[in-house]
Structures are given as structure tokens and as C-alpha cells.
Amino acid sequence: MLHELVAIVMLAIGLSHVLWSGLWADAALGWTRSRHPATTGMISGIVSLAIGAAILLARPSTDGLLIITTVIGWIAAIKGVAWLLMPGIMLSLLPRTRSALTVGVVLGGLIQMAAGGALLFATSGIPTSG
To answer: Is 101 part of a structural domain of the chain?
Structure first.
């Protein structure tokens, strides 16, 4: 059930990033230009670390494409720790223009949709080998 949950969340977030990339870019620009932009990143870090830790503590299967869930858990946990311990560095890595952010949002969304689709396929019960 964990793999299906992660797959559905990845597909939904990825599709949102592709369909509403401009809004996502505007939101990111808004908080990077706020009085204390690192604070928003640190709050995001808390959420990312909690989600990543929850996924990893559930001990997801690492068979075949199901390893994607574990990789997502590690990425979320590492991102969370990075935002909490190095907010200034993480903030400096973000693009500063709307167009660059929009491209990044779309690429990220496509990657999320591919990962979510692969996970759904892996959990579908369709044999992947002879």
C-alpha cells in the first residue's frame, strides 16, 4: 500500500507541476523574495524530512521498480536535512528568474510523473519478466 500511495502522490504533484508550472514558479519567487526566505525553506525541510523518514521507516520493498519508493524516501529525507542545516546554501541553489524556475518545475513534474507511473506499473501485478 505504501508504494501505491507514493505513486499516486507523485503523479498528482507531478501533473500539478506540469499544468500549473507558472503558479509554482510564482510561489517560489514569492517566498525567495520575502523578508526571511530561508524560513520557508526550513519549514519545507521539516515536512520533507518527516515524509522521507516515514517512507524509510516503513521499510519499503526494494524489488525491481519498487526501489523507487526507497529512493524517494531518501531524497525527501536528505532534502529535509539540507534545508534544516544549510538553509542559505539551499536557497542559493534556486534559480532566480521566473523562466528558469518554470523550466525546473516542469522538468521536476515530468520526473515525478515518470516515477509515479513506474511505481503504479510495478504494483499492478503485471509480470515484468518471463
So the answer is: yes
Around Cβ 130, how many Cβ atoms within 10 Å? Answer: 3
Q: From CA 112, how far away is CA 127, in angstroms rounded? A: 23
CA dihedral 86, 46, 39, 15 (to 10 degrees): 100
d(CA 14, CA 108): 7
Q: Give residue-wise pLDDT tens across range 99-128.
A: 999 999 999 999 999 999 999 999 987 766
Range of the domain at 96: 2-123
Structural domains in the chain (count)? 1
**Burial (CB count within 10 angstroms: exposed 0-12, middle 13-18, buried 19+), residue 109:** buried
Q: What is the pTM assigned to this prediction?
A: 0.88
Q: Residue 75: inside a domain, yes or no?
A: yes
